[in-house]
């Protein structure tokens, strides 16, 4: 699809949608002035590594303005570049509107990227693979709307964690890779990896995606070019003096028992081990790899929040064509809803009412993760089944069994 | 999840069934249709996936796991530490030099007397830890004795010929470490005599002077961690009991003590006291002499309308322990680094009705509370509002003597001797305590292989041993106390290192509880995947061999 036409559509067709979404957000911000701070304090939205409060609290800013390392004291755990950004904003306690506008804009940018991703049709048909069901898909308008009016996204936006910047960067990296703009894509991905380390694991599928989209049979591209893309992204990431998780982990963790740091590792290891396996298995559908990996991140990442879930859910509608192949859509939806409603209730019972203990909340996070992993594995199954039906057309619509 | 992905891709067809109708009989025979053979590329892809999981587990997972869970254990000189604790590293011997000032005696006779006295001393003294060595004094004036304070000469014996009619007599100089001996001139030994009455007399006097110090040091050795074979000969149970009673009274050694003087009265008067002048006059001299061993900080307070814990007019023995009204009297606990010694003057008409069998040092108006301080009951002074310095003389002198006891000073001998003895006792005590801390740390290290040992613990141990060696080399000298003090502080710091405690209560069962749930879900698919791959590879090879 020609690039200029795509961006034209994005502006004309979705302007109304964006205006409504922005208005909804600003309305929520202004009509319920207590809501942003309430949501900022929720563990589901703000984690220690993404909290808005910790980013803008006076102590951190004054440390920064007095040339003292803001990482001293264990309050601030985020990427250094965010700090100048937040210290540029007027004090959020007196002029909150600037922060609101900033976060609304970031959401709209994400939605715009998502629009482009959906419009490219990469979900149904990539260079090496074309789904027999690819005609059945949602337009960018629908996908962007599903993202913008997803309650998780809205709650995240109002809670103002810094993870929305990561979300935006990842979506832009995908969108730019789809439009063949390799340099911008890698820059976006490095920015995302800089904000929080884990998007670096998206590098292999992202490189394959960009490679496929810029593939030109007449001018053969070699492995050298793939390697070049990788080094580009890696060198950009290496510029980071204190990248996200890894930046803060040495200081607070080494002082406590050594077992804690190995806990951190145990959650990082499964995430990283899925990347090569999924990339090899779904070589023909790199966008599916990215989507599944984002789902796995939302489950296994240390300090997960609903921002990760909303990012994953925003890419799922790009695979509208495999929805009929999902087997557990009802169970998944119920479990996720169950977790969504009971999670805050159990948290309240544990922390405020004191009538429940930590296990209540822990159990509900397990249920939540179960719902998400159901969705991830179901999506993986659907994508693979779709692939398999190309290979064995006679099996369409038949029951299958694992042997 | 990984298993799902792998298997879904190439598994399906088994469930589809083909129905073959046999026209002859009309019976439908249901026959399972075999799935088409797996494609070569699919097999290869699966191998790659299994390989990628294993590569990540081996090359990323294992090194990170190893790095993050390895417990840092700094190397400790364990044998050296145990040697110190067992007393192998340092012979606790106090070589005390005694100068013999013979006055006008000719050199030959003086040497002779010295030899004989040393013999008599060695015969008398069976305690190897405390060695008295005689030497001739060089310039026996009081000035030089003072100037050589820091040398190892613990005592100077000043001989002077006395009345021939009397037997030898001796007296300790009250302000200097000097033992004056008056001898009848005829008691001097002749050149070849094997023994002499004077020599034996001097030896006995010296033995008596240092008997208490010997007892205390042997008690310290007895109760320390030193193994019996490295310990000098033991002492009798009786001595142990008396010394231990005295030692339990005294405060734990500290470089600095905080002295708190309080005036409590039952009514509105007296409301002021000349405590500063009284301390300066009566206590300061002793405090100054203690300066090389301890530092002191002082505060004072006056409390009106303070009612004691016991109201009765005559205090019985059992009342003394509850006299201090700890709930209402603002007595500072040892909050800072320095332990507090409390001295309380209580103005009131109460008296103590304890039979005179108590310690002779204690007057009927005061008593000492072990490891805490002392109380003095003072009758209301004549001028009601003010307590003068003279009135405070007796209380302060009593407090001074109690302070010396609380500090663990021996009770016999002149003050300079007692203080030099105190320094020696304290250095021996600190040396032994530091050594036993080292021993405990060594045992802890061996007993708990999972405990982490940070590098600053190793540094502390090295420093302790270094200072212990210095202290041991100069045992009995002035620097020895300082080194022993540093060694003890370092040893305590190393032993009570905070980061070691965390691991102390982390048994192996917890590790199993942490690892099993993780290794189950991760390990089983990994291992099963690998086994399946190997099996498939073997089958393929066999088929190839058959085909060939």
UniProtKB/TrEMBL annotation, chain A:
Subcellular localization, as worded in the UniProt entry: Endoplasmic reticulum membrane
Coiled coil regions in record: none
Positions of transmembrane segments: 12-32, 97-117, 138-155, 191-211, 326-347, 359-384
UniProt keywords, alphabetically: Endoplasmic reticulum, GPI-anchor biosynthesis, Membrane, Transmembrane, Transmembrane helix
Pathway per the UniProt entry: Glycolipid biosynthesis; glycosylphosphatidylinositol-anchor biosynthesis
Membrane topology: Multi-pass membrane protein
Name of protein: GPI transamidase component PIG-U
Source species: Apiospora marii
From TrEMBL, chain B:
Membrane topology: Multi-pass membrane protein
Transmembrane segments annotated in the record for this chain: 48-66, 512-531
Keyword terms: Endoplasmic reticulum, Glycoprotein, GPI-anchor biosynthesis, Membrane, Transmembrane, Transmembrane helix
Main location: endoplasmic reticulum
Annotated segments matching region Disordered: 1-42
Compartment(s): Endoplasmic reticulum membrane
Biased composition (Basic and acidic residues): 30-42
Functional pathway: Glycolipid biosynthesis; glycosylphosphatidylinositol-anchor biosynthesis
Annotated PANTHER family: GPI TRANSAMIDASE COMPONENT PIG-S (PTHR21072)
Family the UniProt entry places it in: Belongs to the PIGS family.
Protein name: Phosphatidylinositol-glycan biosynthesis class S protein
């Amino acid at each position: 699809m020609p690039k200029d036409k795509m961006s034209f559509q994005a502006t004309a067709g979705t302007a109304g949608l964006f205006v409504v979404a922005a208005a909804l957000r600003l309305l929520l911000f202004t009509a319920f002035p207590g809501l942003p701070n309430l949501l900022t304090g929720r563990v589901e939205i703000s984690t220690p590594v993404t909290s808005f409060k910790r980013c803008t609290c006076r102590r951190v800013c004054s440390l920064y303005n007095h040339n003292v390392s803001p990482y001293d004291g264990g309050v601030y755990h985020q990427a250094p570049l965010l700090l100048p950004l937040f210290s540029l904003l007027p004090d959020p306690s007196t002029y909150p509107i600037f922060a609101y506008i900033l976060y609304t804009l970031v959401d709209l940018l994400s939605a715009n990227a998502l629009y482009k991703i959906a419009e490219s049709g990469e979900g149904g048909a990539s260079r090496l693979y074309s789904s027999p069901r690819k005609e059945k898909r949602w337009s960018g308008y629908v996908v962007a709307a599903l993202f913008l009016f997803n309650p998780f996204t809205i709650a995240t936006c109002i809670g103002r964690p810094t993870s929305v910047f990561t979300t935006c960067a990842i979506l832009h990296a995908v969108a730019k890779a789809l439009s063949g703009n390799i340099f911008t894509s890698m820059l976006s991905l490095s920015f995302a990896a800089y904000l929080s380390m884990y998007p670096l694991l998206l590098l292999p599928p992202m490189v394959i995606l960009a490679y496929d989209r810029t593939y030109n049979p007449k001018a053969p591209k070699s492995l050298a070019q793939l390697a070049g893309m990788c080094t580009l992204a890696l060198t950009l990431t290496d510029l980071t003096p204190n990248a996200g998780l890894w930046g803060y982990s040495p200081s607070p963790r080494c002082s406590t028992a050594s077992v804690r740091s190995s806990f951190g590792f145990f959650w990082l290891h499964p995430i990283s081990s899925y990347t090569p396996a999924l990339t090899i298995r779904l070589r023909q559908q790199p966008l599916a790899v990215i989507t599944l990996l984002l789902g796995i991140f939302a489950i296994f990442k240390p300090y997960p929040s609903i921002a990760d879930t909303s990012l994953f859910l925003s890419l799922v509608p790009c695979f509208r064509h495999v929805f009929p192949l999902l087997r557990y859509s009802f169970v998944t939806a119920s479990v996720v809803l169950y977790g969504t409603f009971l999670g805050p209730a159990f948290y309240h019972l544990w922390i405020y009412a004191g009538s429940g203990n930590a296990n209540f909340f822990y159990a509900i996070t397990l249920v939540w993760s179960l719902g998400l992993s159901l969705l991830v594995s179901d999506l993986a199954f659907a994508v693979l089944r779709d692939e398999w039906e190309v290979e064995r057309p006679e099996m369409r619509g038949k029951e299958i069994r694992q042997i | 999840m990984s298993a799902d992905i792998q298997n879904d891709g190439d598994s399906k067809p088994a469930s589809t069934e083909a129905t073959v109708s046999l026209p002859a009989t009309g019976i439908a025979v249901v026959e399972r249709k075999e799935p088409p053979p797996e494609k070569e590329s699919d097999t290869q892809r699966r191998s790659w996936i299994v390989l990628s999981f294993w590569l990540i587990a081996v090359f990323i997972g294992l090194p990170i796991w190893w790095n993050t869970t390895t417990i840092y254990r700094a190397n400790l000189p364990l044998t050296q530490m145990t040697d110190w604790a067992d007393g192998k590293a340092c012979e606790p011997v106090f070589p005390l030099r005694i100068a013999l000032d013979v006055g006008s005696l000719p050199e030959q006779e003086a040497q002779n007397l010295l030899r004989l006295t040393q013999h008599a001393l060695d015969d008398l003294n069976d305690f190897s830890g405390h060695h008295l060595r005689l030497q001739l004094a060089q310039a026996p004036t009081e000035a030089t004795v003072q100037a050589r304070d820091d040398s190892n000469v613990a005592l100077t014996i000043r001989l002077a010929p006395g009345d021939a009619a009397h037997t030898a007599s001796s007296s300790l100089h009250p302000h200097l470490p000097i033992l004056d001996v008056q001898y009848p001139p005829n008691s001097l030994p002749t050149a070849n005599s094997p023994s002499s009455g004077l020599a034996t007399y001097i030896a006995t006097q010296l033995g008596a002077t240092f008997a208490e110090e010997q007892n205390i040091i042997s008690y310290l050795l007895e109760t320390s961690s030193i193994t019996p074979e490295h310990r000098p000969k033991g002492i009798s149970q009786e001595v142990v009991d008396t010394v231990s009673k005295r030692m339990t009274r005294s405060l734990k050694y500290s470089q600095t003590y905080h002295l708190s003087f309080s005036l409590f009265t039952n009514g509105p008067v007296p409301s002021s006291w000349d405590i500063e002048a009284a301390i300066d006059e009566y206590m300061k001299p002793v405090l100054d002499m203690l300066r090389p061993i301890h530092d002191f900080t002082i505060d004072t307070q006056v409390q009106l309308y303070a009612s004691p814990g016991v109201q009765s007019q005559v205090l019985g023995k059992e009342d003394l322990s509850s006299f201090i009204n700890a709930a209402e009297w603002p007595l500072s606990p040892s909050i800072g680094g320095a332990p507090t010694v409390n001295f309380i003057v209580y103005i009131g008409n109460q008296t103590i009705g304890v039979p005179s069998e108590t310690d002779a040092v204690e007057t009927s108006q005061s008593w000492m509370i072990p490891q805490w301080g002392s109380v003095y009951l003072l009758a209301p002074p004549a001028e009601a509002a003010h307590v003068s310095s003279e009135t405070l003389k007796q209380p302060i002198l009593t407090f001074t003597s109690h302070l010396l006891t609380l500090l663990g000073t021996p009770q016999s001998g002149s003050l300079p001797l007692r203080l030099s003895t105190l320094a020696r006792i304290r250095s021996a005590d600190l040396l032994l305590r530091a050594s036993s801390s080292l021993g405990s740390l060594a045992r802890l290290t061996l007993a708990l292989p999972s405990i982490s040992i940070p590098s600053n613990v190793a540094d502390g141990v090295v420093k302790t041993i270094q200072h212990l060696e210095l202290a041991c080399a100069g045992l009995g000298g002035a620097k020895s106390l300082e080194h022993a003090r540093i060694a003890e502080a370092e040893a305590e710091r190393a032993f009570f290192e905070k980061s070691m405690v965390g691991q102390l209560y982390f048994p192996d069962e917890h590790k199993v509880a942490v690892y099993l749930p993780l290794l189950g879900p991760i390990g089983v698919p990994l291992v099963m995947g690998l086994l399946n791959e190997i099996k498939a590879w073997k089958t393929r090879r066999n088929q190839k061999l058959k085909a060939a």
